[in-house]
Every structure is written in C-alpha cells, then in structure tokens.
Amino acid sequence: MIVRKIRPTFDSQYRLLPCGCGGEAEYIEFDSGFWAAACTVCKRRGRSYRVRHTAQVNWNQGGERYG
C-alpha cells in the first residue's frame, strides 16, 4: 500500500530526471518501507528499494522499469 508520494523540487538532492515520455517523476513510499520512483503521466515505475537514494539512482540511470 502507498503511504505517500513526494515530488522533489528541481534543486533538491533527491531530484529525479523526467521520464522518457516527458512526464514528471515522483517518489512513492510504501508501507513496507520501500521506495520507488514513478512517472506521473505514463505511470511507469522503477524498481522498489529500501533506501530512497537507491530508487533515485535506478530511476535517473534509466534502470529497469515496470509498466
């Protein structure tokens, strides 16, 4: 279950690159304590990780995505 969604500001250390579709990305925190990044437009989502920074790196490097 999703606990909260966070849209980082452009100058944040947690900034996310735009999705390939051009949409803005946001963080999703799950009740399990895991984090993922997802596009607010096409809903593509990166892998889930226990650490938010790892989810950020996965997303910004264009890592594995699930639709």
Written account of the structure:
The two termini are 17 Å apart. This protein has one helix at 52-60, and strands spanning 2-6, 25-30, 35-39, 45-46, 65-66. It contains 1 helix and 5 strands; from the N terminus they run ββββαβ. The mean pLDDT is 92. The strands form 2 sheets. A 3-stranded antiparallel sheet has the order 1-2-3, with helices on one face. The protein has a two-stranded antiparallel ribbon with strand order 4-5. The longest helix has 9 residues, at 52-60. By secondary structure, it is α+β, with helices and mostly antiparallel strands.
Short description:
This protein is of the alpha+beta class.
Spatial shape: globular
| Beta strand count | 5
Distance between the termini: 17 Å
Give the low-confidence spans.
none
Helices and strands in order:
Elements (H helix, E strand, L loop, with lengths): L1 E5 L18 E6 L4 E5 L5 E2 L5 H9 L4 E2 L1
Keywords:
about 70 residues; alpha+beta; 3-stranded antiparallel sheet; two-stranded antiparallel sheet; 1 helix; 5 strands; about 30% strand
